[in-house]
Amino acid sequence: MSATTARLGRDALIEKYDGRAPRYTSYPTAVQFSDEVTPEIYADWLQALPDDEAVSLYIHVPFCSRLCWYCGCNTRAVNGHGPVAAYVVYLEKELLSLHKALGRRRLRVSSIHFGGGTPNMLTPVEVRSVLGALSGAFRFAGSLELAAELDPEILTKEWVTTACVNGLSRASLGVQNLDREVQAAVNRPESFDHIADCVRWLRDGGVSSINMDLMYGLPRQTVANTRATVDQLMTLRPERISLFGYAHVPWMKSHQKLIDENALPGASERLDQFDAAARRLASEGYVQIGMDHFALPEDDLCKAQAEGRLRRNFQGYTTDPAQVLLGLGPSSIGSLPQGFVQNASQEIAWRKALDHEGLPVARGVRLTADDRFRGEIIERLMCDFEVDLGEITTRYGRSPRDIVHELSRLEAFAADGLVRSEGSRLKVTEAGRLVVRSICAVFDVYFREAEGRHSRAL
């Protein structure tokens, strides 16, 4: 990815476009969720789901053994296992409530994703218990994809063996950066040798796809230690790499105030770190997927991107074709044809709802026809860096006049060489990929940059 264009130098690009923009893992974004979507409305949506269409499940585990200061997830560090054990009991309660709301129908599940937090905070016995409860409430597809986000620092061979015996097929290891100074600056010590052990256990267990999460823009991070981290990980040959920019939002995540802001790299340094990692990955044969993922050519992400079926959801870029995602656990988000729903973020409120045998939904948003229209434009831009506006406008029964204002706003991006039009197709240029979130925001009727509720675009 180039950080410059023939018309706009890097410094000018940063000054002009390093505002705030959503990451567009949904449209409308979670900022638009409200309490107007109630548990009763969610129950109606669940009842309307067809029996023969496969769904995906997301299970949120809101616990960690340590609190990483950069983290933007809904999680907390716990010293003992008691809160985790209690969570498992309530998670199975939620599953019963969900199954009841579905009319006790056992829908077919094609994908299960454990996220967090740290899913490997669950003991091997608890992993078996949760998966057993899930298999009792749903029918697992023969090609079920079972994925988990894992903290290698506390991952054990026993945990991996149990998960693999129960179907784990894809794993994501949080690495971020291997430099000791960077790790100390974000309270996340871990060793490369143990990460290598984790990869070996996963491979031996039959896991066919391993992702590693890396970050750029962390305190004390440099181009040199970014490149050194990638060099070490290349010896393990993961199928996928996620390369996320650190989002410093201490007004939303108070623990980020523990980070020394003076040690944070500037926007230009952040781009240098991304470029260095991207070039190194390209030299190893990895293909860039969307704005921040990389995958080996034989990986499903590459195939999906080449075939125009790459998707984007709350877990990032995905090949999951399911139109329905059901979320379980505090703060988890679900996606249905009618709209999005989110569980209560606080465990206390989540448990209270389940104690009353209700669905723990706290908020959400009902999709309008315009939301679906704009959401598809944004998803295609985020996934493919191009979209046929004429085809989508016709398919949704809309008029070209409906996006005249948006096309007018895109003229500034075109003048800077960041987008171009080819007939009815809007294409993001190589340089424009840096600001694709800002380009997408042009089509977002809800976005107000001045509200400052999102991370910086660069």
Automatic annotation (TrEMBL):
It comes from Phenylobacterium parvum. [4Fe-4S] cluster binds at C64, C68, C71. The gene is hemN. One of its GO terms (biological process) is protoporphyrinogen IX biosynthetic process. It comes from the Bacteria. Binds 1 [4Fe-4S] cluster. The cluster is coordinated with 3 cysteines and an exchangeable S-adenosyl-L-methionine. It catalyses: coproporphyrinogen III + 2 S-adenosyl-L-methionine = protoporphyrinogen IX + 2 5'-deoxyadenosine + 2 L-methionine + 2 CO2. Keywords: 4Fe-4S, Cytoplasm, Iron, Iron-sulfur, Metal-binding, Oxidoreductase, Porphyrin biosynthesis, S-adenosyl-L-methionine. InterPro entries: Coprogen_oxidase_HemN (IPR004558), Coproporphyrinogen-III_oxidase (IPR034505), Elp3/MiaA/NifB-like_rSAM (IPR006638), HemN_C (IPR010723), rSAM (IPR007197), rSAM_sf (IPR058240). Its cofactor is [4Fe-4S] cluster. Signal peptide: none annotated. S-adenosyl-L-methionine 2 binds at Y70, C71, G72, G117, T118, Q176, R188, D213, A247. This is Coproporphyrinogen-III oxidase. Pathway: Porphyrin-containing compound metabolism; protoporphyrin-IX biosynthesis; protoporphyrinogen-IX from coproporphyrinogen-III (AdoMet route): step 1/1. Gene3D superfamilies: 1.10.10.920, 3.30.750.200.
